[in-house]
User: Fold these one by one.
Assistant:
Number 1:
Amino acid sequence: MALPKANRLKSRKDFQAVFREGIRRHGSYLTLRALKPLCSTKPSLETVTQTTQATESLRLASTRIGISISTKVSKRAVVRNRIKRQITAVLSNLLPKLSPGWRLVFIVKPTATESKCASPQFLQELEQLLAQAEVFDGNS
Protein backbone atom coordinates (compact mmCIF):
# COMPACT_ATOMS: atom_id res chain seq x y z
CA MET A 1 0.00 0.00 0.00
CA ALA A 2 1.55 3.29 -1.12
CA LEU A 3 1.37 6.56 0.74
CA PRO A 4 -1.11 9.15 -0.56
CA LYS A 5 0.48 11.74 -2.86
CA ALA A 6 -0.18 14.52 -0.32
CA ASN A 7 2.00 12.63 2.18
CA ARG A 8 5.03 12.02 -0.04
CA LEU A 9 8.24 13.99 0.25
CA LYS A 10 9.57 14.18 -3.29
CA SER A 11 11.58 17.29 -4.12
CA ARG A 12 15.31 17.50 -3.62
CA LYS A 13 14.82 20.88 -1.94
CA ASP A 14 12.59 19.34 0.75
CA PHE A 15 15.03 16.48 1.40
CA GLN A 16 17.89 18.96 1.73
CA ALA A 17 15.91 21.10 4.18
CA VAL A 18 15.17 18.07 6.36
CA PHE A 19 18.82 16.95 6.31
CA ARG A 20 20.10 20.46 7.01
CA GLU A 21 17.68 21.61 9.73
CA GLY A 22 15.97 18.48 11.03
CA ILE A 23 16.53 16.51 14.21
CA ARG A 24 18.03 13.00 14.17
CA ARG A 25 16.95 9.84 15.91
CA HIS A 26 18.84 6.58 15.43
CA GLY A 27 17.70 2.98 15.67
CA SER A 28 19.32 -0.34 14.81
CA TYR A 29 17.69 -0.60 11.35
CA LEU A 30 16.62 2.98 10.59
CA THR A 31 17.57 6.61 11.12
CA LEU A 32 14.84 9.24 11.32
CA ARG A 33 15.41 12.83 10.23
CA ALA A 34 12.46 15.03 11.20
CA LEU A 35 11.76 18.70 10.54
CA LYS A 36 9.15 20.41 12.71
CA PRO A 37 6.34 22.28 11.00
CA LEU A 38 6.48 26.03 10.66
CA CYS A 39 4.22 27.80 13.14
CA SER A 40 3.30 30.70 10.87
CA THR A 41 2.42 30.64 7.22
CA LYS A 42 3.27 33.31 4.68
CA PRO A 43 0.51 35.78 3.86
CA SER A 44 -1.15 35.05 0.55
CA LEU A 45 -1.01 37.49 -2.36
CA GLU A 46 -4.19 38.69 -4.03
CA THR A 47 -2.99 37.39 -7.39
CA VAL A 48 -2.82 33.79 -6.19
CA THR A 49 -5.88 31.78 -7.13
CA GLN A 50 -8.12 29.95 -4.68
CA THR A 51 -7.01 26.51 -5.88
CA THR A 52 -3.34 27.33 -5.38
CA GLN A 53 -4.08 28.48 -1.83
CA ALA A 54 -6.00 25.30 -1.11
CA THR A 55 -3.24 23.03 -2.39
CA GLU A 56 -0.58 25.04 -0.53
CA SER A 57 -2.48 24.79 2.76
CA LEU A 58 -2.99 21.06 2.18
CA ARG A 59 0.74 20.64 1.48
CA LEU A 60 1.66 22.50 4.66
CA ALA A 61 -0.95 20.71 6.75
CA SER A 62 -0.11 17.13 5.81
CA THR A 63 2.84 15.21 7.18
CA ARG A 64 5.18 14.39 4.31
CA ILE A 65 7.39 11.32 4.39
CA GLY A 66 10.40 10.25 2.34
CA ILE A 67 12.43 7.04 2.41
CA SER A 68 16.10 6.92 1.53
CA ILE A 69 17.65 3.54 0.85
CA SER A 70 21.16 3.34 -0.56
CA THR A 71 22.79 0.68 -2.70
CA LYS A 72 25.00 0.06 0.34
CA VAL A 73 21.97 -1.65 1.88
CA SER A 74 21.73 -4.05 -1.05
CA LYS A 75 22.94 -4.01 -4.62
CA ARG A 76 19.70 -5.67 -5.71
CA ALA A 77 16.79 -3.33 -6.44
CA VAL A 78 14.33 -6.10 -5.57
CA VAL A 79 15.57 -6.19 -1.98
CA ARG A 80 15.60 -2.39 -1.64
CA ASN A 81 12.07 -2.09 -3.03
CA ARG A 82 10.78 -4.84 -0.71
CA ILE A 83 12.15 -2.97 2.32
CA LYS A 84 10.66 0.28 1.04
CA ARG A 85 7.25 -1.37 0.57
CA GLN A 86 7.36 -2.77 4.12
CA ILE A 87 8.16 0.65 5.55
CA THR A 88 5.42 2.41 3.56
CA ALA A 89 2.87 -0.21 4.65
CA VAL A 90 3.73 0.41 8.30
CA LEU A 91 3.72 4.20 7.82
CA SER A 92 0.34 4.19 6.09
CA ASN A 93 -1.10 2.55 9.23
CA LEU A 94 0.61 5.12 11.49
CA LEU A 95 -0.33 8.14 9.35
CA PRO A 96 -3.55 9.09 11.22
CA LYS A 97 -1.61 9.18 14.52
CA LEU A 98 1.02 11.66 13.26
CA SER A 99 0.90 15.40 13.93
CA PRO A 100 0.32 17.47 10.78
CA GLY A 101 3.02 19.51 9.08
CA TRP A 102 6.08 17.39 9.86
CA ARG A 103 8.58 16.46 7.15
CA LEU A 104 10.14 13.05 7.84
CA VAL A 105 12.91 11.13 6.10
CA PHE A 106 13.63 7.52 7.03
CA ILE A 107 17.11 6.29 6.14
CA VAL A 108 17.52 2.52 5.98
CA LYS A 109 20.75 1.10 7.40
CA PRO A 110 22.57 -1.91 5.91
CA THR A 111 21.71 -3.94 9.04
CA ALA A 112 18.10 -4.10 7.79
CA THR A 113 19.01 -6.73 5.16
CA GLU A 114 21.65 -8.56 7.19
CA SER A 115 19.23 -9.46 9.95
CA LYS A 116 16.30 -10.26 7.60
CA CYS A 117 14.26 -7.54 9.26
CA ALA A 118 10.51 -8.21 9.08
CA SER A 119 7.46 -5.96 9.31
CA PRO A 120 6.89 -6.35 13.10
CA GLN A 121 10.46 -5.18 13.75
CA PHE A 122 10.00 -2.21 11.40
CA LEU A 123 6.73 -1.33 13.13
CA GLN A 124 8.31 -1.44 16.56
CA GLU A 125 11.34 0.62 15.55
CA LEU A 126 9.30 3.15 13.54
CA GLU A 127 7.00 3.76 16.51
CA GLN A 128 10.02 4.11 18.81
CA LEU A 129 11.73 6.64 16.55
CA LEU A 130 8.55 8.65 16.03
CA ALA A 131 7.89 8.70 19.79
CA GLN A 132 11.48 9.86 20.48
CA ALA A 133 11.09 12.69 17.97
CA GLU A 134 7.66 13.54 19.46
CA VAL A 135 5.93 13.35 16.08
CA PHE A 136 2.79 11.58 17.34
CA ASP A 137 -0.35 13.67 17.84
CA GLY A 138 -0.45 15.34 21.24
CA ASN A 139 3.34 15.26 21.75
CA SER A 140 4.24 18.53 20.03
Note: DSSP finds five helices and four strands in the chain.
Number 2:
Amino acid sequence: MSKKQDPSVWQGFKAFLMRGNVVDLAVAVVVGAAFTNIVNAVVKGVINPVVGAIGTKNLDHYSSCLSSSCQGGQGIEIAWGSVLGAALQFVITAAVVYFLMVLPMAKFLARQEARKRAKEGAQEVMEVTELQVLKEIRDELVAQRGGTHGGGR
Protein backbone atom coordinates (compact mmCIF):
# COMPACT_ATOMS: atom_id res chain seq x y z
CA MET A 1 0.00 0.00 0.00
CA SER A 2 2.85 2.40 0.76
CA LYS A 3 4.38 1.60 -2.61
CA LYS A 4 1.29 3.02 -4.35
CA GLN A 5 1.43 6.23 -2.30
CA ASP A 6 5.14 6.88 -2.88
CA PRO A 7 4.87 7.64 -6.63
CA SER A 8 1.97 10.05 -6.06
CA VAL A 9 3.86 11.84 -3.28
CA TRP A 10 6.92 12.02 -5.52
CA GLN A 11 4.82 13.31 -8.43
CA GLY A 12 3.23 15.92 -6.18
CA PHE A 13 6.64 17.05 -4.95
CA LYS A 14 7.93 17.19 -8.52
CA ALA A 15 4.91 19.26 -9.61
CA PHE A 16 5.49 21.60 -6.66
CA LEU A 17 9.12 22.13 -7.66
CA MET A 18 8.27 22.73 -11.30
CA ARG A 19 5.81 25.55 -10.56
CA GLY A 20 7.03 28.92 -11.72
CA ASN A 21 6.69 30.62 -8.34
CA VAL A 22 9.05 28.14 -6.65
CA VAL A 23 11.72 28.78 -9.27
CA ASP A 24 11.13 32.55 -8.99
CA LEU A 25 11.52 32.33 -5.22
CA ALA A 26 14.79 30.44 -5.55
CA VAL A 27 16.14 33.04 -7.98
CA ALA A 28 15.03 35.83 -5.63
CA VAL A 29 16.90 34.24 -2.71
CA VAL A 30 20.11 33.90 -4.73
CA VAL A 31 19.89 37.45 -6.09
CA GLY A 32 19.03 38.75 -2.62
CA ALA A 33 22.10 37.08 -1.16
CA ALA A 34 24.27 38.66 -3.85
CA PHE A 35 22.77 42.09 -3.18
CA THR A 36 23.34 41.62 0.54
CA ASN A 37 27.05 41.07 -0.08
CA ILE A 38 27.23 44.17 -2.28
CA VAL A 39 25.35 46.31 0.24
CA ASN A 40 27.50 45.09 3.13
CA ALA A 41 30.62 45.99 1.14
CA VAL A 42 29.23 49.47 0.38
CA VAL A 43 28.37 50.07 4.03
CA LYS A 44 31.74 48.83 5.27
CA GLY A 45 33.78 50.45 2.48
CA VAL A 46 31.95 53.76 1.96
CA ILE A 47 29.39 54.55 4.68
CA ASN A 48 31.49 53.55 7.69
CA PRO A 49 34.53 55.60 6.58
CA VAL A 50 32.28 58.64 6.01
CA VAL A 51 30.84 58.16 9.50
CA GLY A 52 34.41 57.56 10.69
CA ALA A 53 35.33 61.07 9.54
CA ILE A 54 32.89 62.31 12.19
CA GLY A 55 33.52 59.71 14.89
CA THR A 56 34.49 56.05 14.99
CA LYS A 57 34.89 53.95 11.86
CA ASN A 58 32.49 51.29 13.09
CA LEU A 59 28.86 52.17 13.73
CA ASP A 60 28.67 49.38 16.31
CA HIS A 61 30.77 51.52 18.67
CA TYR A 62 28.08 54.21 18.94
CA SER A 63 26.00 53.67 22.07
CA SER A 64 24.37 55.46 24.97
CA CYS A 65 24.18 54.54 28.62
CA LEU A 66 20.81 54.65 30.41
CA SER A 67 22.31 54.37 33.88
CA SER A 68 24.87 56.61 35.50
CA SER A 69 27.78 54.39 34.50
CA CYS A 70 28.29 51.62 31.94
CA GLN A 71 31.85 50.82 32.95
CA GLY A 72 32.90 47.23 33.57
CA GLY A 73 29.78 45.60 32.13
CA GLN A 74 27.46 47.33 34.59
CA GLY A 75 24.58 49.56 33.65
CA ILE A 76 22.24 49.53 30.69
CA GLU A 77 23.88 50.30 27.37
CA ILE A 78 21.84 51.01 24.22
CA ALA A 79 23.83 50.14 21.08
CA TRP A 80 22.03 52.49 18.71
CA GLY A 81 24.95 52.52 16.25
CA SER A 82 24.36 48.90 15.23
CA VAL A 83 20.66 49.68 14.73
CA LEU A 84 21.60 52.66 12.57
CA GLY A 85 23.98 50.48 10.55
CA ALA A 86 21.29 47.84 10.00
CA ALA A 87 18.80 50.54 8.99
CA LEU A 88 21.30 51.99 6.49
CA GLN A 89 21.90 48.53 5.04
CA PHE A 90 18.16 48.00 4.67
CA VAL A 91 17.61 51.37 2.96
CA ILE A 92 20.54 50.80 0.60
CA THR A 93 19.32 47.27 -0.22
CA ALA A 94 15.80 48.53 -0.87
CA ALA A 95 17.12 51.35 -3.08
CA VAL A 96 19.32 49.00 -5.10
CA VAL A 97 16.48 46.52 -5.63
CA TYR A 98 14.02 49.28 -6.54
CA PHE A 99 16.22 51.31 -8.87
CA LEU A 100 18.08 48.43 -10.52
CA MET A 101 15.31 45.83 -10.75
CA VAL A 102 11.77 46.99 -9.97
CA LEU A 103 11.75 50.35 -11.77
CA PRO A 104 13.40 49.14 -15.02
CA MET A 105 11.12 46.08 -15.09
CA ALA A 106 8.02 48.24 -14.55
CA LYS A 107 9.09 50.54 -17.40
CA PHE A 108 9.78 47.55 -19.65
CA LEU A 109 6.37 46.02 -18.90
CA ALA A 110 4.66 49.38 -19.50
CA ARG A 111 6.36 49.65 -22.91
CA GLN A 112 5.32 46.10 -23.75
CA GLU A 113 1.71 46.87 -22.80
CA ALA A 114 1.72 50.08 -24.86
CA ARG A 115 3.02 48.19 -27.91
CA LYS A 116 0.36 45.53 -27.41
CA ARG A 117 -2.38 48.17 -27.20
CA ALA A 118 -1.03 49.94 -30.28
CA LYS A 119 -1.10 46.67 -32.25
CA GLU A 120 -4.64 45.94 -31.10
CA GLY A 121 -5.73 49.46 -32.07
CA ALA A 122 -4.16 49.09 -35.52
CA GLN A 123 -5.92 45.76 -36.04
CA GLU A 124 -9.28 47.32 -35.14
CA VAL A 125 -8.69 50.13 -37.62
CA MET A 126 -7.74 47.59 -40.31
CA GLU A 127 -10.87 45.53 -39.63
CA VAL A 128 -13.09 48.62 -39.86
CA THR A 129 -11.34 49.72 -43.06
CA GLU A 130 -11.71 46.26 -44.60
CA LEU A 131 -15.38 46.27 -43.70
CA GLN A 132 -15.84 49.67 -45.34
CA VAL A 133 -14.08 48.50 -48.51
CA LEU A 134 -16.26 45.40 -48.67
CA LYS A 135 -19.40 47.52 -48.26
CA GLU A 136 -18.26 49.80 -51.06
CA ILE A 137 -17.56 46.82 -53.35
CA ARG A 138 -21.01 45.43 -52.57
CA ASP A 139 -22.64 48.76 -53.30
CA GLU A 140 -20.75 49.06 -56.61
CA LEU A 141 -21.78 45.54 -57.66
CA VAL A 142 -25.40 46.27 -56.80
CA ALA A 143 -25.23 49.54 -58.76
CA GLN A 144 -23.73 47.78 -61.80
CA ARG A 145 -26.53 45.23 -61.83
CA GLY A 146 -29.01 48.04 -61.78
CA GLY A 147 -30.53 46.98 -58.53
CA THR A 148 -31.08 49.06 -55.45
CA HIS A 149 -29.70 48.40 -52.00
CA GLY A 150 -30.79 49.91 -48.75
CA GLY A 151 -33.36 52.29 -50.27
CA GLY A 152 -30.79 54.97 -50.97
CA ARG A 153 -30.57 54.38 -54.74
Note: The helical segments are 2-18, 20-54, 80-145.
Number 3:
Amino acid sequence: MNDNSRAIEPLLARLCGGAITGKDYVGYFMNEHGEELVFAQRRGDKTARLWHNDADWEMFRVGDHSIRVDGAMDGMITAGELIVDRSEATWLSSCLAASRHLRPGRD
Protein backbone atom coordinates (compact mmCIF):
# COMPACT_ATOMS: atom_id res chain seq x y z
CA MET A 1 0.00 0.00 0.00
CA ASN A 2 1.58 3.29 -1.07
CA ASP A 3 -1.03 5.66 0.37
CA ASN A 4 0.29 6.32 3.90
CA SER A 5 -2.83 8.30 4.80
CA ARG A 6 -4.73 5.03 4.88
CA ALA A 7 -2.10 2.95 6.70
CA ILE A 8 -3.28 1.36 9.93
CA GLU A 9 0.09 1.40 11.73
CA PRO A 10 0.06 5.14 12.62
CA LEU A 11 -3.49 4.84 13.90
CA LEU A 12 -2.62 1.89 16.14
CA ALA A 13 0.55 3.64 17.35
CA ARG A 14 -1.52 6.67 18.41
CA LEU A 15 -4.12 4.44 20.05
CA CYS A 16 -1.71 2.49 22.27
CA GLY A 17 1.20 4.92 22.46
CA GLY A 18 3.62 2.34 21.08
CA ALA A 19 6.30 2.57 18.42
CA ILE A 20 4.61 0.86 15.48
CA THR A 21 5.75 1.26 11.88
CA GLY A 22 4.84 -0.08 8.46
CA LYS A 23 7.54 -2.73 8.96
CA ASP A 24 5.56 -4.39 11.77
CA TYR A 25 2.98 -7.13 11.48
CA VAL A 26 0.05 -5.61 13.40
CA GLY A 27 -3.24 -6.79 14.81
CA TYR A 28 -6.15 -5.07 16.53
CA PHE A 29 -8.88 -6.61 18.67
CA MET A 30 -11.86 -5.32 20.62
CA ASN A 31 -13.40 -7.71 23.12
CA GLU A 32 -17.08 -7.95 24.06
CA HIS A 33 -16.57 -5.30 26.78
CA GLY A 34 -15.13 -2.76 24.34
CA GLU A 35 -11.57 -3.23 25.64
CA GLU A 36 -8.96 -2.83 22.90
CA LEU A 37 -5.76 -4.77 22.28
CA VAL A 38 -2.95 -4.03 19.84
CA PHE A 39 -0.30 -6.51 18.67
CA ALA A 40 2.94 -5.69 16.82
CA GLN A 41 5.72 -8.01 15.67
CA ARG A 42 8.86 -6.55 14.13
CA ARG A 43 11.01 -8.71 11.83
CA GLY A 44 14.03 -10.00 13.74
CA ASP A 45 12.63 -9.39 17.24
CA LYS A 46 12.40 -12.55 19.36
CA THR A 47 9.12 -11.41 20.89
CA ALA A 48 6.13 -9.34 19.86
CA ARG A 49 4.64 -6.39 21.69
CA LEU A 50 1.13 -6.44 23.11
CA TRP A 51 -0.86 -3.52 24.52
CA HIS A 52 -4.23 -3.71 26.31
CA ASN A 53 -6.21 -0.59 27.18
CA ASP A 54 -7.51 -2.28 30.37
CA ALA A 55 -3.85 -2.40 31.50
CA ASP A 56 -3.43 1.35 30.82
CA TRP A 57 -1.73 0.56 27.49
CA GLU A 58 1.29 -0.94 29.25
CA MET A 59 3.41 -2.91 26.77
CA PHE A 60 3.87 -6.65 27.35
CA ARG A 61 6.36 -8.86 25.50
CA VAL A 62 4.81 -12.07 24.15
CA GLY A 63 6.15 -14.99 22.15
CA ASP A 64 5.27 -18.42 20.88
CA HIS A 65 4.89 -19.92 24.36
CA SER A 66 3.47 -16.94 26.26
CA ILE A 67 -0.16 -18.05 26.46
CA ARG A 68 -0.71 -20.17 29.56
CA VAL A 69 -3.75 -21.69 31.28
CA ASP A 70 -3.38 -22.09 35.03
CA GLY A 71 -5.55 -24.99 36.19
CA ALA A 72 -4.83 -24.18 39.82
CA MET A 73 -6.37 -20.72 39.32
CA ASP A 74 -9.70 -21.90 37.86
CA GLY A 75 -8.36 -21.85 34.30
CA MET A 76 -7.00 -18.29 34.38
CA ILE A 77 -5.33 -17.48 31.05
CA THR A 78 -2.23 -15.32 30.91
CA ALA A 79 -0.12 -13.92 28.10
CA GLY A 80 3.20 -13.10 29.66
CA GLU A 81 2.27 -11.05 32.73
CA LEU A 82 -1.16 -10.03 31.39
CA ILE A 83 -4.42 -11.79 32.31
CA VAL A 84 -6.57 -12.31 29.20
CA ASP A 85 -9.90 -13.93 28.49
CA ARG A 86 -10.46 -16.82 26.09
CA SER A 87 -11.37 -14.65 23.08
CA GLU A 88 -8.30 -12.44 23.62
CA ALA A 89 -6.07 -15.52 23.92
CA THR A 90 -7.53 -16.95 20.70
CA TRP A 91 -6.90 -13.69 18.83
CA LEU A 92 -3.37 -13.40 20.27
CA SER A 93 -2.60 -16.99 19.29
CA SER A 94 -3.64 -16.18 15.72
CA CYS A 95 -1.43 -13.07 15.67
CA LEU A 96 1.54 -15.05 16.98
CA ALA A 97 1.00 -17.79 14.39
CA ALA A 98 0.63 -15.32 11.53
CA SER A 99 3.81 -13.45 12.48
CA ARG A 100 5.94 -16.47 13.46
CA HIS A 101 8.02 -16.21 10.26
CA LEU A 102 9.26 -12.77 11.37
CA ARG A 103 10.91 -14.05 14.56
CA PRO A 104 14.55 -15.24 14.41
CA GLY A 105 15.04 -18.87 13.42
CA ARG A 106 11.61 -19.04 11.75
CA ASP A 107 12.57 -18.15 8.15
Note: The chain has two helices and seven strands.
Number 4:
Amino acid sequence: MPRFMTLVRIEENDVPAGGLGPDFEERMGALLEEITKAGVMLDTAGLHPTSDGTRITWTGGKFSQVDGPFTETKEVIGGYSITQCKDKAEAMEWAKRFLEIHPPEFTLTVEVREIAEG
Protein backbone atom coordinates (compact mmCIF):
# COMPACT_ATOMS: atom_id res chain seq x y z
CA MET A 1 0.00 0.00 0.00
CA PRO A 2 1.28 3.48 -0.78
CA ARG A 3 2.47 5.82 1.95
CA PHE A 4 1.58 9.50 2.05
CA MET A 5 3.11 12.48 3.80
CA THR A 6 0.74 15.19 4.90
CA LEU A 7 2.44 18.52 5.58
CA VAL A 8 0.47 20.85 7.83
CA ARG A 9 1.00 24.47 6.87
CA ILE A 10 0.09 27.15 9.39
CA GLU A 11 0.33 30.89 9.71
CA GLU A 12 2.62 30.78 12.71
CA ASN A 13 1.76 34.27 14.00
CA ASP A 14 -1.97 33.46 14.03
CA VAL A 15 -1.74 30.46 16.37
CA PRO A 16 -3.48 31.32 19.67
CA ALA A 17 -0.92 31.69 22.47
CA GLY A 18 -2.93 29.49 24.84
CA GLY A 19 -3.51 26.76 22.27
CA LEU A 20 -6.87 25.73 20.86
CA GLY A 21 -8.45 24.59 24.12
CA PRO A 22 -9.30 21.31 25.87
CA ASP A 23 -12.23 20.52 23.54
CA PHE A 24 -9.84 20.62 20.59
CA GLU A 25 -7.36 18.35 22.39
CA GLU A 26 -10.13 15.79 23.03
CA ARG A 27 -11.32 15.84 19.40
CA MET A 28 -7.75 15.53 18.09
CA GLY A 29 -7.00 12.69 20.50
CA ALA A 30 -10.11 10.81 19.35
CA LEU A 31 -9.18 11.21 15.67
CA LEU A 32 -5.59 10.10 16.26
CA GLU A 33 -6.84 7.07 18.17
CA GLU A 34 -9.26 6.21 15.34
CA ILE A 35 -6.67 6.56 12.57
CA THR A 36 -4.14 4.52 14.59
CA LYS A 37 -6.66 1.73 15.26
CA ALA A 38 -7.51 1.71 11.53
CA GLY A 39 -3.84 0.86 10.89
CA VAL A 40 -3.34 3.96 8.76
CA MET A 41 -1.16 6.21 10.94
CA LEU A 42 2.56 5.47 10.80
CA ASP A 43 3.89 8.68 12.40
CA THR A 44 2.74 12.19 13.25
CA ALA A 45 4.08 15.19 15.16
CA GLY A 46 3.90 18.92 15.49
CA LEU A 47 7.02 21.00 15.03
CA HIS A 48 8.62 23.60 17.29
CA PRO A 49 8.22 27.23 16.15
CA THR A 50 10.50 28.60 13.44
CA SER A 51 12.26 30.68 16.09
CA ASP A 52 13.95 27.40 17.08
CA GLY A 53 14.80 26.44 13.48
CA THR A 54 17.59 27.09 10.99
CA ARG A 55 17.48 27.10 7.19
CA ILE A 56 20.56 25.93 5.34
CA THR A 57 20.83 26.72 1.63
CA TRP A 58 23.24 25.27 -0.92
CA THR A 59 23.81 27.58 -3.89
CA GLY A 60 26.79 28.29 -6.09
CA GLY A 61 28.75 25.57 -4.34
CA LYS A 62 28.46 27.29 -0.93
CA PHE A 63 26.31 27.00 2.16
CA SER A 64 24.41 29.84 3.74
CA GLN A 65 22.50 29.65 6.98
CA VAL A 66 19.64 31.69 8.47
CA ASP A 67 18.34 31.19 11.99
CA GLY A 68 14.60 31.56 12.67
CA PRO A 69 12.16 33.02 13.06
CA PHE A 70 11.61 33.31 9.33
CA THR A 71 9.68 36.58 9.30
CA GLU A 72 9.62 36.79 5.49
CA THR A 73 7.57 33.58 5.35
CA LYS A 74 3.84 33.80 5.99
CA GLU A 75 3.05 30.05 6.01
CA VAL A 76 5.34 27.50 7.64
CA ILE A 77 5.20 23.75 8.16
CA GLY A 78 3.77 23.26 11.63
CA GLY A 79 3.54 19.48 11.62
CA TYR A 80 3.30 16.34 9.54
CA SER A 81 1.89 12.86 9.37
CA ILE A 82 2.88 9.75 7.49
CA THR A 83 0.02 7.42 6.65
CA GLN A 84 -0.34 4.19 4.72
CA CYS A 85 -3.58 4.26 2.73
CA LYS A 86 -5.10 2.26 -0.09
CA ASP A 87 -4.96 5.33 -2.35
CA LYS A 88 -4.68 9.14 -2.40
CA ALA A 89 -8.45 9.53 -1.98
CA GLU A 90 -8.29 7.78 1.40
CA ALA A 91 -5.29 9.88 2.47
CA MET A 92 -7.19 13.03 1.52
CA GLU A 93 -10.27 11.94 3.51
CA TRP A 94 -8.16 11.57 6.66
CA ALA A 95 -6.56 14.98 5.97
CA LYS A 96 -10.01 16.60 5.64
CA ARG A 97 -11.10 15.05 8.93
CA PHE A 98 -7.95 16.47 10.54
CA LEU A 99 -8.82 19.95 9.21
CA GLU A 100 -12.46 19.74 10.39
CA ILE A 101 -11.35 19.35 14.01
CA HIS A 102 -9.90 22.87 14.01
CA PRO A 103 -12.04 25.92 14.88
CA PRO A 104 -13.43 27.71 11.79
CA GLU A 105 -11.51 30.91 12.60
CA PHE A 106 -8.19 29.02 12.45
CA THR A 107 -6.39 29.01 9.08
CA LEU A 108 -4.30 26.04 8.06
CA THR A 109 -3.60 24.05 4.93
CA VAL A 110 -2.53 20.47 4.44
CA GLU A 111 -0.54 19.18 1.51
CA VAL A 112 -0.97 15.47 0.80
CA ARG A 113 1.82 13.86 -1.22
CA GLU A 114 2.58 10.24 -1.99
CA ILE A 115 6.00 9.09 -0.85
CA ALA A 116 8.18 7.87 -3.73
CA GLU A 117 8.95 4.20 -3.14
CA GLY A 118 11.84 2.34 -4.78
Note: The two ends are 13 Å apart (CA to CA).
